[in-house]
Automatic annotation (TrEMBL):
Keywords: Signal
SUPFAM superfamilies: DPP6 N-terminal domain-like (SSF82171)
Name listed for the protein in its UniProt record: Uncharacterized protein
Signal sequence range: 1-34
Domain of life of the native organism: Eukaryota
Organism: Micromonas commoda (strain RCC299 / NOUM17 / CCMP2709)
Amino acid sequence: MTETRPNSTALPRATLTRWLCVAVFLLLSGKSTALEIAGHGRSASWTQIGATFTGSGSEKPGSVLSFSEDGSRLLVGSIPVPAYVDVYEWQSGSSAWTLLGARISPPHGSIVSACLSGDGKVVAIGDFNGGDFNGAGLEVWWTVAVYHYASGSWQRVGSDIVGSSSEGYYAEVSLSSDGKVLAIGNNNQTLSSYDSSDHNATMTGRVRIYQWPASDLTASGVAWTQMGEPIEAWSTSSGFYPWFGPYSQKVYADAGKLSGDGKRVALFKTNGWAQKGYVYEWKSSSWSIVGDSIDLEGTASISYDGNVVAGSYGNVYKWSSGAWSSIRTEYFGYYTSLSRDGTRVAYADSWNEGVVLVHQWDSEAESWGRMLDIRGESASDQVGAMVSLSGDGSRVAVFSDGAKHTRVFEVGTTCDTSVAPPNASVGNCPAKLASGSSCQPTCNSGYSATRPTTCVSGYLKNATCAAGCEVSSAPVNGGKGDCGNLLAKSKSCTPTCNDGYVRKGNKKTSCDSAGVLSAAECRKRYSWGDAKFCPKYENVVFCWSVKKKEDCLAARPKRDCKWSNSSSGGSEYCYHDDKEFDEMWDESYYHDFAADKCGSVDPWTRDAL
């Protein structure tokens, strides 16, 4: 499911802005150890599992990475030469990654991209064929091959999907969770000659989505079927880069990231500098755009349900209430990888020593919290040249281009709670808090905890002690209820009242934004037999039952009735001109006394005047 593409050297894509931002960030940051990395902000530590994936000669194992959803299987590919894909499995209780089946070699000896399905059973490889260059241009075409793991080996699924020479060599692949939906994004290049003086280089692109129509991936006589029309580029351009020669219009060059259910696809178009992202959804027999365009450049990753999309440089969007809303992280990282539910994201960039960051979404604080910070082991390590996060977010694989190796880290099962949050002491929190557990720090005098400290899948959600109002005592004739000793600003709590008493006006105890306390009061609970409810003027029980003005005025001395004189032509009526009566009505509610009577009079069946 999680897929990231290799670093293509055929076309320039990195901008000066990207490298400057990363360089500044690295100058301001520290360094971490190699095998065990302390969790950022007292989150769980991350420990390397299994040996480092290393190659020999020009091999670069991990220049293509893709995790399964549960993190038990990992695709480790190498480009450009030699080009291959290995799939490894981590079995429960083991201490090593085991090669699953034999090594997969691309049909034509090259790899542009590769992807592992969420269930870890299907591999898609995009490569290119050809390479015949003549005066008319460079003749190449893309090819996509799909493999399914069955009976101990990787077996081809249907025939290869082959592009035409007019579409160029690039094929970005992505798979649904079950491997039965395949997206292929490509750009095609038209060069009238290889001479850099030619200013007529153009590039357009498209995304095609295919479906395997059979329930069995090993079924014979079945072919990949295209779902709807290709999602085409709608503009092209041409020009000339001073340093690189002909202007390259890259449209959908890094496109076709499928959601786990295969119903949404995230993609973008770019002219080499400016980029915009789009999400499409499969409806009936066609792909329809979802919402407006978003800032999605460089690389893309999408959650299982397609409701969270992440791009380079911290751009993250969530689909809510019929629109995309930005929930961006700190501005950093070219490569990105989302967890299945979209609440955890990995960012990476390989400038200089390189860095990999993992962030966790805190829904209560509505912000991202950093939980992992991996640095290169040397100035030329270039860690972060590729990254893949498992679907459950528990494991992250990182490739170091300079060191030519890949390491896999797993989040620990406890969070460090030995240090208290600001304005608090540790309270009942242990030094290590197990994932899924909570504890309560003790806030300093004048501060109140807005939530407990919780360890969520290795990420520490610390309690916050905020200034508030002191709630020193319970109301007269009542108890404190859920009110503690301190109430945070702009919050309320509910005290209890003793038997026969209710909260006056049904109001709660509250602390306003300025820190001023408004305490609830407990007052006697009235019934129909009390003076405020039983008739005192003939049979007038409720003023709003009175239909005539003269009857309303006659009842006023005993029932506090008042006649409404409309000045705008509206209807006139009789009402209670008594705040205390209104408060008691709010406190008591009529259904509390539905069976009560005023002496021998039933107020609910009495005829109104």
